[in-house]
């Protein structure tokens, strides 16, 4: 590390000029940064010492960012912010479906990237010191949400959640039977740095549904309240 105690970020981008710019900017703002020009070694490095977040470009020669993200998600729930080409909605949606936590279209202002990193970190602050045994898990409708592990389980099986998926499910499970609007869920999951009309929340909800329904005895526990939001249903 360049500065003792600095939070480690991984930056994966084949553009050396952009990497130099971002490394300097992020280090000036209190982060340490490890650079990668491609996917080689990224997953192994995450396993050796998990960073607080990964900044991952989608458009790279050879292994794409989406392929790298898929490999990351097999091993880790570390927050991932994707860098996408402007207007490439399909890549953005694919990244969210694979478990990315946020995305930022190129070109972008480094200050916006910093704001998004900080927003991700605010919702993924380690809970070990603050969490007690009584509040470490949330149980509702036959599902158990583990705050420390950031997982959901049922029937003896467990699914890892991305940071955004975790915050959405936490919000819904701690308000069972209550309809939460998209704006309310955005405030739970992404903070106030983001606009209230970001429809990517629907992609994240779809991903949560897939994970909960894949568990033994899993069921469709998240109800869509058309035109309004979502509700966690508890079986009677």
CATH architecture identity of the largest domain? 3-Layer(aba) Sandwich
Q: Indicate the CATH topology of the largest domain.
A: Rossmann fold
Name the CATH superfamily classification of the largest domain. Answer: Response regulator
Count of domains: 2
Class of the largest domain in CATH?
Alpha Beta
Mean pLDDT: 83
Largest sheet features: 5 strands, parallel
Pfam family, one: Response_reg
Protein name: DNA-binding response regulator
Domain Response regulatory: 8-121
Modified residues (4-aspartylphosphate): 57
Quick structural summary:
The protein is built from 8 helices and 12 strands.
Task: Write a structural description.
There is one protein chain. This protein is α/β, with parallel strands linked by helices and 236 residues long. It has eight helices and twelve strands. The strands form three sheets. A five-stranded parallel β-sheet has the order 2-1-3-4-5, sandwiched between helices. Strands 6-7-8-9 form a four-stranded antiparallel β-sheet, covered by helices on one side. Strands 10-12-11 form a three-stranded antiparallel β-sheet. The longest helix is centred in the C-terminal third of the chain and has 14 residues, at 200-213. Pfam families: Response_reg (PF00072), Trans_reg_C (PF00486). GO terms for molecular function: DNA binding. Residues 135-234 bind DNA. The modification 4-aspartylphosphate is found at residue 57.
Keywords:
236 residues, Arc Repressor Mutant, subunit A, globular, Rossmann fold, alpha/beta, 37% helix, transcription, five-stranded parallel β-sheet, four-stranded antiparallel β-sheet
């Amino acid at each position: 590390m360049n500065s003792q105690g600095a939070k480690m970020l991984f930056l994966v981008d084949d553009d050396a000029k952009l990497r130099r710019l971002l490394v300097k900017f992020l280090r000036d703002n209190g982060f340490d940064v490890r650079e990668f020009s491609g996917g080689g070694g990224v997953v192994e490095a995450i396993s050796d010492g998990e960073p607080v977040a990964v900044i991952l470009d989608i458009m790279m020669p050879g292994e794409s960012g989406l392929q790298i993200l898929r490999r990351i998600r097999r091993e880790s729930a570390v927050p991932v912010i994707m860098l996408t080409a402007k207007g490439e909605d399909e890549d953005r949606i694919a990244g969210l479906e694979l478990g990315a936590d946020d995305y930022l279209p190129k070109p972008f202002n480094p200050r916006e990237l910093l704001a998004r990193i900080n927003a991700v970190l605010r919702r993924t602050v380690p809970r070990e010191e603050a969490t007690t045994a009584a509040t470490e898990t949330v149980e509702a409708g036959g599902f158990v949400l583990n705050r420390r592990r950031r997982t959901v389980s049922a029937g003896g099986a467990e699914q890892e959640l991305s940071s955004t998926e975790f915050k959405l499910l936490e919000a819904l499970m701690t308000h069972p039977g209550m309809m939460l609007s998209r704006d309310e869920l955005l405030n739970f999951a992404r903070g106030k740095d983001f606009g209230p009309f970001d429809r990517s929340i629907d992609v994240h909800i779809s991903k949560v549904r897939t994970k909960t329904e894949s568990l033994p005895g899993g069921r469709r526990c998240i109800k869509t309240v058309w035109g309004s939001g979502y509700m966690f249903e508890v079986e009677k």
